[in-house]
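Sample entry (157 residues):
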Amino acid sequence: MKLSEIKEILSTLDHVEFQLENGTPVPAHFHVTEVGQIEKRFIDCGGVVRHEKTVTFQLWNAHDYEHRLTPAKLHHIINLSEDKLHIQDGEIEVEYQNNTIGKYGLDFNGKTFVLTNKTTACLAEDACGVPAEKQKINLAQLPLAPPSSCTPGSGCC
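Predicted structure, serialized as tokens:
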């Protein structure tokens, strides 16, 4: 989800809810402690230099159980970050403390913002040297070969 999309969605909501992809809710008293933009320059295993820019939100649970972030307040935080930090529209990555700090994508299911699981991948598969995964075949579904003229005792084997 892009920053512009979350701003549009926030204008339609009465309250802000986040949940993990497995349905576990982020406690309602969460805080958005950071909104920022991160630039990452790196080189992949194929030697290609890459550049990524993402908008980051950090969610944090405090012992402030009465706290509730409103859509208007989150919208204000986003607008402030755009103004003061010159953040550009881009894909949002959410940092959230689980067993360790996790990085998640962001989606919306019509009611709740969903922290989507992210995975790693090789960006240079053609240069990496890792063989492509072989396709699994069910041998029982292979067509039978036509009968051979070679029979036991015929001397052809």
